[in-house]
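Researcher: We plan to redesign the surface later, but first we want a full-length starting point. Tokens attached.
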């Protein structure tokens, strides 16, 4: 379905971003990876995309807190592939602290990478999409884009902002063949979350599964983690012809978190 299209996925060297890049590649899209990590590991993932899916894949180390590097990455993608058709804003960081203890530099960093970077990528990518009369912009928000949790002031503010950006872009580009939507995951099993589960199990004497359920139950009615691959599958759908008039929407994939 996406053969001949090109997708840039920020923060795609691991986790949700990599799973989304793989899902888009499996549907035929060429991929520009982006993110930090071990160079050899990143090269292995890049080469695997090409080998497994028969597409072209490249990598940009652009720092998503630096607007000039973001603009250069968009330009490099358009030069390498001839166009940038699909933009997935996934890059993100986290810091947890009560608001009175929240370091100013951590606020600035979270807002820069989780929110401002999406403005800068869209700002650079949308002129080409408008010229070609086709584009798909997908912003990876969070359940925290819809509801709040304590000690996550910067993350919650950024993710609420991402949903606001999504709506504005959708309205502005409604008749340019471009859609812009947000995906709002709940609990996703990442290495960091697994460490929380292991620590909880050790401290309480619970089984790993009971510790997992206890963690999930704090927010979600469903006692299951969302898989990164499921987020990738939703992104592919939002790029499809079937989603051509879906724009400005926020899709919860959160085990019922925000239904309560």
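Model: Full-length starting sequence:
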């Amino acid at each position: 379905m996406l053969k001949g299209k090109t997708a840039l996925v920020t923060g795609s060297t691991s986790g949700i971003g990599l799973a989304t890049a793989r899902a888009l590649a499996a549907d035929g899209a060429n991929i520009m990876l982006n993110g930090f990590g071990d160079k050899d590991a990143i090269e292995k993932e890049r080469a695997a995309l090409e080998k497994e899916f028969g597409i072209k894949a490249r990598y940009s180390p652009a720092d998503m807190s630096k607007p000039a590097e973001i603009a250069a990455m968009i330009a490099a993608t358009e030069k390498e592939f001839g166009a940038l058709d699909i933009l997935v804003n996934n890059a993100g960081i986290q810091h947890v602290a009560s608001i009175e203890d929240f370091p100013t530099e951590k606020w600035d960093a979270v807002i820069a990478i989780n929110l401002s970077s999406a403005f800068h990528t869209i700002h650079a990518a949308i002129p080409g999409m408008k010229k070609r009369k086709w584009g798909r912009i997908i912003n990876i928000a969070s359940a925290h884009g819809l509801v709040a949790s304590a000690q996550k002031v910067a993350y919650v503010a950024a993710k609420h902002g991402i949903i606001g950006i999504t709506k504005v872009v959708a309205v502005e580009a409604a008749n340019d063949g471009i859609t812009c939507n947000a995906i709002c995951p709940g609990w996703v099993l990442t290495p960091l979350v697994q460490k929380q589960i292991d620590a909880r199990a050790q401290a309480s004497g619970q089984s790993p599964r009971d510790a997992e359920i206890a963690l999930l139950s704090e927010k979600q009615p469903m006692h299951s983690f969302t898989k990164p691959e499921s987020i990738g599958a939703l992104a592919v759908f939002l790029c499809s012809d079937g989603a051509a008039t879906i724009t400005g929407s926020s899709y919860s994939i959160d085990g019922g978190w925000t239904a309560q």
